[in-house]
Every structure is written in C-alpha cells, then in structure tokens.
Write a structure and sequence with these properties.
- The complex is a heterodimer of chains A (231) and B (197).
- With 231 residues, chain A is of the alpha/beta class.
- Chain B folds into 2 domains: 79 residues, Arc Repressor Mutant, subunit A; 97 residues.
- Chain B has a 3-stranded antiparallel sheet with strand order 1-3-2.
- Chain B is extended, with a radius of gyration of 22 Å.
- Chain B starts with 10 loop residues before the first helix and ends with a helix.
- Classes of the chains: A alpha/beta (231), B mainly alpha (197).
- The interface between A and B is large, with 35 and 39 residues.
Chain lengths: 231, 197
C-alpha cells in the first residue's frame, strides 16, 4: 500500500489551493510530486499541456525554480544572504547575477522585507521567513508556486496578513500563477479557494470549493440544516 | 453581589446580552437568538421563559406592556448589566467537552460499531458543509477588507475575527470526525480480520 492513493486535483491560474493534513500523512510527498521533485509510482502530473512525469530530468530542472517554485520553512542549505537566496532561481535561469540581484531587491521591497536583504535565514523571525519565502516565490514569473508548511502556526492575525499578501502577489502575477500549499492547521487554509483534506488513508476529501475548475461548487445546505451543534 | 457569575454558556445569558444590546420583546429576542447564535440551537422557548425569569430576578424591567406577553418590551437593569459583564469576563475553566460521540464511545458494543461509523461520516459531511459556508463568509470579508484597506472600526474587525474563529471551529470538528471515522473503520477491519482468522 502506498502513502497516497487515488489522489487527483488541479490548481488553476489565479487560485490558491490548500491541502490540510496532520504530520506524517504525506502532505510533503504529495506537494513534491506535484512540483515535479519526486515521481509518483503511478499516474501523472501536468503543468499546462506538459506532462512532468514524462519529461527528462534536464528539462524538469529547467522548469523548477522558473515556472515551478518550491518554498518551505527550511530556507537555503548554504549560508547565504537573503538577497542571494531570493534571486538564486532567477540567476540560475539566465537572468544574470546583476539582474537577479535587482529582481531580488524588488521582490523583497514588494513584500515589505527590504531590511532582510543582508541578513541570514537563521537570523530571521518566523514572520520574516514567510515574507522572504514569498518574495523568492514571486521574484520571477512562476506558473505555479508550491508552499510546504510555510504558513503554519502564524496565529489569526499572521495568517490573515500572509493570506492577503499571497492574494495580492497572485493577482499581480503575469501570467497569472496558481498556488498549491500544504498546512497542518485549518486556520492557514481559511482564505484558500479550494481546501482539500488529506486523510489518514492517503486520500483527498474536498472541504471547500469546486471539485474541478469546471465542476460544481460543493453544495451548501441551508444555514439551519448545514450547521452542526456547538454545545 | 450578582447571583451568578459562571462562565458557562446558557440561553439566559444570551437573552440578557441581547436585551442589553437593545430593548426588545420576547418575540424579537427569539428572532435575534436564532439569527445571531444559530449554531447553538437554543430552544424556541428560551427567549420567553428566560425574559420572565430575568425580570423576576431584577435583571430586566418592563418598559412597555404589549398586546400579549411575548410583545412586552424589556430593558436591562444596572444589576443585569453587572451580572452580564461578570459572565463576559469570567474564565471558562475547568475545560468542558460535552460531546455526544465521546459518550457513545464509552457505551459502544461491537454490534454498534458499523452504525457509529455511519453517524460519524454523516456528521463529518454536515460539519464540512458548515465549514464551507463559514469559509465563504471569511473570504467575502477578506475581499472587503482588501478593497477598503486598513484601518477598520472595532465592530467590523471583531466580526471578522468571530467569523474566522467560527470557520476554524467547524473545520477542526470536520477534520476530527474524519480522523475518528478513519480510525473506527481501521478498527472494524482489524476486528473483522481477527474474527475471520
């Protein structure tokens, strides 16, 4: 039996999709497969018309950091300044060192984290890491941003501010990109357009939104009938 | 000294709070109780019974006689306001979980397991639908907030926090029921396999 079974979902441009699951339920594995960082045993992952599971590693590496951006809480493996970390994917994809530096500075400015440019990841607060992560994700023109657990445990206010910022960045992206994020708490998923719950059995259950971009909105029973009881 | 100051949620406290918010009749309070605290599902008779009780304790006073008792108009007394503030600022400790499923698990026999799994799944669907409905409101509030920018007034901000908290409650319950359902199904598989072996 695999960790994940019969998992199928999509992220459309301009949309934030959240996967909610407890630790060790396979959220990161699912996101890595969606980002093309890992192969599924069966099935396929497509980005637009391009099948990620079929293309050669060399082509896939070109997509990663350019059209597909992965961010998590870990930060850079090497001890580099934030400005370099943010501009790195652009430098690797033909932007040139100077161009990457400029883009990184703009990206940090856009998220309100200019003061972090000369600092190391390890010296940043949790909130600054969120800002820097989002700056890196949107420094270029990604088609999809995959965020693993970065927005967890920010508290109500932090979640709200991070979600507003994420929404602003998505709306400003050109071409419009989609966001796939994982979280272990429901709170971080409150502002997503679609919320999937990952079950202990490795399946996905829709909690909010449409099944597919063309599909029906999940039916909401009338308020009186739909509400449970909180005693 | 106020007669009671427990942090426990009762329809009586909600009725008192609603009359403090504005003078009202039992009929009006019943409507507001249903509208503002829909998920608590207070009994329909809560407003009428509790207004009479609260008036008897001196926490409400009659300001206008109606054509029938449910249309009598009341306002809160200063003592009533003091009692209500005491409740509002009182801690809810020790923690209380009054959960029917927890109690059913205590009494569960093997032959009830399939039925319990079915009701857990039904409740999971209902709570998920409630989460979805609350999340729609949270997202609508986010759109408004982003459109008008900060700062916002006290009441608007407070309602936003309340909405988010409500959505979280439904979401946490839905997720908890999903996990419980999965665990009970795994348990059923285990005991069925053990029985077959």
């Amino acid at each position: 039996m695999g960790v994940l079974e019969d998992v199928s979902f999509e992220v459309v441009p301009g949309e934030v999709v959240a996967i909610v699951g407890s630790r060790l339920e396979g959220k990161t594995t699912l996101l890595k497969i969606a980002a093309g960082l890992e192969y599924p045993d069966e099935g396929s992952v497509t980005l637009g018309a391009q099948e990620l599971t079929d293309i050669q590693d060399r082509c896939r590496s070109r997509l990663l950091g350019d059209e597909i951006v992965w961010i998590n809480r870990d930060g850079p493996r090497l001890k580099v300044k934030v400005s370099k970390f943010v501009g790195w994917p652009l430098a690797l994809h033909g932007c040139g060192r100077r161009g990457a530096e400029r883009a990184a500075a703009q990206a940090l400015e856009r998220v309100g984290a200019r003061e972090c440019a000369g600092r190391l990841w390890g010296d940043l607060s949790n909130w600054q890491r969120v800002l820097v992560g989002l700056a890196r994700a949107f420094a270029g023109n990604p088609r999809i941003v995959v965020i693993d657990d970065l927005l967890d445990a920010l508290g109500s206010r932090g979640t709200e501010e991070a979600s507003d910022l994420l929404r602003t960045l998505v709306e400003a992206s050109n071409p419009r990109c989609g966001v796939l994020m994982s979280t272990s708490d429901v709170e971080s998923a409150l502002f997503a357009d679609r919320v999937w719950s990952l079950t202990r059995k490795g399946a996905l259950k829709l909690m909010f939104g449409r099944l597919t971009s063309e599909g029906e909105v999940i039916p909401f029973p009338e308020r009186a009938e739909s509400r449970g009881h909180v005693a | 000294m106020p007669a009671f100051s427990s942090g426990k949620l009762t329809p009586q406290m909600m009725v008192l709070g609603l009359v403090i918010q504005q003078q009202d009749t039992a009929s009006g309070v019943a409507r507001r109780l249903d509208d503002q605290f829909a998920s608590a599902r207070f009994p329909k008779s809560s407003a009428y019974n509790n207004m009479r009780g609260l008036a008897g304790k001196g926490y409400l006073r009659l300001v206008e006689k109606g054509v029938e008792p449910s249309l009598d108009r009341y306002e809160a007394t200063s003592e009533g306001i003091e009692v209500f503030r005491g409740w509002l600022r009182h801690t809810e400790l020790p923690p209380v979980v009054c959960d029917a499923l927890q109690c059913k698990l205590e009494f569960l026999e093997r032959e009830d397991l399939v039925a319990l799994i079915r009701i857990v799944r039904e409740e999971e669907r209902a709570y998920t639908a409630a989460f979805a409905a609350a999340q729609l409101e949270v997202k609508a509030e986010q759109r408004l907030r982003r459109a008008r920018g900060k700062p916002v007034d006290f009441n608007t901000r407070l309602r936003g926090i309340q909405k988010q908290d409500e959505a979280k409650l439904w979401g946490l319950m839905a997720k908890r029921l999903q996990c419980l359902g999965d665990e009970l199904e795994e348990f059923l598989d285990e005991i069925s396999a053990a029985g077959a072996g």
